[in-house]
Amino acid sequence: MRTAVAIVGGGPSGLLLSQLLHRAGIGSVVLERRSRDYVLGRIRAGVLEDGTQALLRRAGVGERMDREGLVHDGFSLAHGGGTHRIDLAALTGRSVMVYGQTEVTKDLYAARDAMGGTVLHGVEDVALHDLTGDAPSVTFRHEGADRRLACDFVAGCDGFHGPTRQSIPAPERREFERVYPFGWLGILSETAPVDHELIYATHGDGFALCSMRNPRLSRYYIQCRADENPDDWPDARFWDALRARLPAALAEALETGPSIEKSVAPLRSYVCETMRHGRLFLAGDAAHIVPPTGAKGLNLAAADIHYLSEALIAWYGTGDAAPLDGYAARALRRIWKTERFSWWMTSILHDFPDRSPFERRMQRAELDYLTQSSAAMTALAENYVGLPY
Ligand code: RFL
Ligand code: PHB
């Protein structure tokens, strides 16, 4: 088998890259370890920046998003018993869209099918070869047979736990990490969202987030221990804990019901600055992780794909290697700013068990300042709607 770009990972990064390359006449094969149903069953991100929306439209997958996505002109911070609205539209002239990662991925699969794209599911034992020469290849097992895919380039879009980053020799990898001393327990429930916009709440018991997927599907999160077992959280316990962290009026308005999904996600900041090794390029969660507080994971992955697709299209179009050579530096400038924002939002909104009384007062002052200064609110808003590409 031969293709131009071998893409390891059929999550949003891999599918979007494949779609953008295809529209530029460049072939690819996507190798995904899981089944399509498994990939579509994962409940993850929910908020799209306007840059991500524009990229999805450019990839030809914006139609359903524009029809069904919910445009949000603001969100609220809840603390000290009250709420404070951050008016994204007034502060930045821009907005975000609530449209779940599951839907984005579904649209991308439908587009790949319609264009006859090759996505192989259930691949095992992916291994990368000859990355530093000009004829790399990927070997894997698929449907019981050993296969070899010859290619010009390999895109590592296989998420944080995937194998492509490990193909970069350890001494060459420059990695930076912070693991937070808590996680998020999330549920999905077929109930009306407590508000028409998102609410990020801080409370002595810990952080809580009220989000949604559509007007009859709510997504709620509460800060929990990183090693929390979701089975220890029957629905009633979750709803009680959430109510306790919300201002009284919202707690009273909260519609509860059975959860249809419940999971714990650890919180981590991570960057691998080495995003290239010969003909291998990393993108998305394979290269970096942000804590979900700023809703940036999926958006950051899309920005990488924007840069990488442009660079590959330039190489195939004119033979110009400069954009590929500059890919990592260009992507990292935006990655680090987004890491900073996600780290900052996490640090002001969560309860850190090891914080000193002084640090807790600083956290309180920061929130107080944020809700009183239009300069501070504008800084929050411009990061939340997304930094330019
Ligand atoms: P993904 O989505 O992890 O996709 C990687 C794909 O690679 C496949 N893979 C392999 N394929 C072949 N061979 C192997 N050996 C492979 N190993 C792995 C995987 O099966 C998978 O299909 O990475 P991608 O495409 O870069 O997309 C990034 C986003 O998914 C991610 O940034 C966000 O979902 C992060 N994130 C969230 N972001 C938000 O903005 N808001 C959220 O609420 C939110 N919740 C989450 C999240 C990430 C989570 N993870 C990764 C544990 C909740 C969770 C649980
Ligand atoms: C979500 O709806 O899953 C969501 C929304 C905003 C975040 C994180 C997750 O900051």
How would you describe the overall organization of this protein?
It is a single chain. With 389 residues, the protein is of the alpha+beta class. The protein folds into two domains: 5-71 and 92-177 and 268-345, FAD/NAD(P)-binding domain; 181-267 and 352-385, D-Amino Acid Oxidase, subunit A, domain 2 (D-Amino Acid Oxidase, Chain A, domain 2, 2-Layer Sandwich), CATH 3.30.9.10. Helix content is 37%, strand content 28%. The chain contains twelve helices and 20 strands. The chain has an eight-stranded mixed β-sheet. Strands 8-2-1-12-19-18 form a six-stranded mixed β-sheet, with helices on one face. It has a three-stranded antiparallel β-sheet with strand order 3-7-4. The protein is globular. The model has no long low-confidence stretch (mean pLDDT 97). The protein binds 8-demethyl-8-dimethylamino-flavin-adenine-dinucleotide and P-hydroxybenzoic acid. The site of P-hydroxybenzoic acid has 11 residues, from strand 15.
